[in-house]
Amino acid sequence: MKVTARAHTNIALIKYWGKRDKKLFLPYNSSLSLTLDAFYTDTTVSFIDQKEDVFLLNGELQSKEETQKISTFIQRFRDLSSLEKKVKVESWNHVPTAAGLASSASAYAALAMALNELFQLSLSKEELSIYARQGSGSSTRSLFGGFVEWQKGTKQDGTDSYAVPILAPEECPVGMIFCLINQEKKKISSREGMNRTVETSPFYSGWVESAATDLVQMKKAIAKKDIPMIGELTEKSALKMHATTLGANPPFTYLEPFSWEVIRKVQEWRQEGHTCYATMDAGPNVKILCPKEEISLLQQKIKETFPNLETICSLPGSGAQILSIEKNEKKKGY
Fold it and tell me: Which of 8, 93, 105, 173 has CB 3.0 to 4.6 Å from 138, enough for a Cys bridge?
């Protein structure tokens, strides 16, 4: 059997930053995101008669190190099913990898969705999010569409740390403009950055405490579809997250000078009466949250102000889904 699944990226509005358990990928704080339709990963999985798993990304055979990461992830599904079959993974990332555009979120969500079908486990998306989380924390949220909360949980085994949908994509009043400042692979990975921040930044404890308060306010704002409040909390969460990295030892930042130029311009446009707010993940690219009906106008303003800056507009995206299932049935000869 060959199964193909698709999952979209998500951008956290209330950020996830830091793990209390590195093995199980359990976060210190709950987070909330918006799944988007602009970037996605398609992944095909099939059983193979070989001694090792095989992993291809965008048509290229991956290194032993990268394949081992995928094999470790697949093993959780083998254990659940009691099938010790090896798997071929063919993944196509329609999003720049490791550039702060959440490629790992869509990648592991698509892989988890496909493996669930291949091993015929029939896990619900909520249950599946527990396993997807152990490949990439943010992939937990990409299993659902629209606004999604990843609940941090309190249990040591991680069984209460999973994602739940908050608002369906068709009901979400906002969209997002991606400002692609730098699409190259970042020098400090998200995992390395998180670890350094948690272990050395004196600002980190304040981040965790304020994130809990921000989440409560964000869920109230979403319930009211209060776009200015959603935007204010989004921008505040992003800036606070990036502030924690400046307090790390040694200090570092994912933002570039041009990132700050775009952020300042977004704030100027807001003062002029436009409803727009900036957010940034672990990378230099700036995303602009705004009402759906203002996307075209703001994209034009960006083009006029930064003519060489590439932008991509996105509306809320759907959750992970199975695209196709192919079954090879052997024909009997007569």
Answer: 105
